[in-house]
Amino acid sequence: MKLTLTKPFILRCFLISLFLSLPFLFLHLFSPQQQQQPQHSHSTTKDLTIRPGYTSYETYIQRQLNKTLNPRLRKIWTTRDWNRKIPVFARFFEDLKDKSLLQNTSKALCIGARVGQEVEALRRVGVVDSVGIDLVPYPPLVVKGDFHHQPFGDETFDFEFSNVFDHALYPQRFVAEIERTLKPDGVCVLHVALSRRADKYSANDLYSVQPLVELFNKSVLVHVRTVDGFGLDTEVAFRKKHKLQTSR
Ligand SMILES: C[S@@+](CC[C@H](N)C(=O)[O-])C[C@H]1O[C@@H](n2cnc3c(N)ncnc32)[C@H](O)[C@@H]1O
Ligand SMILES: *[C@@H]1O[C@H](CO)[C@@H](O)[C@H](O)[C@H]1NC(C)=O
Ligand SMILES: *[C@@H]1O[C@H](CO)[C@@H](O)[C@H](O)[C@H]1NC(C)=O
Ligand SMILES: *[C@@H]1O[C@H](CO)[C@@H](O)[C@H](O)[C@H]1NC(C)=O
């Protein structure tokens, strides 16, 4: 008697509660995934995009060389631009020394240094062991080298500076090469354009610091500030971790 009364009752309670919980179950299963996944890929891919139109690595290099080898421009870079830009770079490097991100004794590399104005600035502020790389050499300040395959051994430099991240066709390689050639505790400073588009020779567009934080996965972000650096508006600094240092 008792059993026949309670069984339908329990069954009815179960069915009602199941019915009531369906909307919550549905919300829980579908809504968080649909919101989180696009947000995650948003930060990595949408804030760093590779420009279309480079059919091969060869055409990318040719396009870079077309400007860098231009004799008329090279004349301007080494004369009129020389005295205009070096003091500006020197000021940036003095500020980095004040923040202890750079020392006179640092072994320093400038990536995509063209005729080496930033290398000359480093030497003038006392960082005497400085050199640059570019597709086109300009000795003695700049040696020939592709930043996608730096011509240096692992853990060579204490400090690396570059204002040409936007010229990287393979940003992952650009950063991996910096992290390879930096010593542990070594510092990388980038000047990038976030709020405006860089020039027509750029190979990528960056819209926030977040993609850099994800690419520099052997380093910690140590400093971000706004600068006025020849069309580049943001200075970002990373310090390379020791091998056993954890991610936080
Ligand atoms: C906008 S210029 C910057 C020159 C210099 N840093 C300055 O501020 O005066 C970009 C430079 O990056 C160099 N470059 C482009 N792609 C490169 C690559 N894959 N490896 C090395 N240098 C590269 C170009 O040759 C050019 O000299
Ligand atoms: C580079 O310039 C040369 C001559 O000015 C031109 O023929 C060539 O198509 C250019 N290459 C690229 C990749 O822009
Ligand atoms: C670094 O070098 C500059 C320029 O030669 C010099 O004025 C400065 O005193 C040096 N700083 C240190 C801490 O040795
Ligand atoms: C760090 O990034 C490199 C390439 O950018 C990738 O190959 C590597 O797996 C990443 N490491 C970690 C721990 O995420």
UniProtKB/TrEMBL annotation:
Keywords: Membrane, Transmembrane, Transmembrane helix. This is Methyltransferase type 11 domain-containing protein. InterPro entries: Methyltransf_11, SAM-dependent_MTases_sf. Pfam families: Methyltransf_11 (PF08241). The keyword Repeat does not apply. It comes from the Eukaryota. Residues 109-190 form the Methyltransferase type domain. One of its GO terms (molecular function) is S-adenosylmethionine-dependent methyltransferase activity. PANTHER family: F21J9.14. CDD domains: AdoMet_MTases. Signal peptide: none annotated. The keyword Acetylation does not apply. The chain crosses the membrane at residues 9-30. It comes from Lotus japonicus.
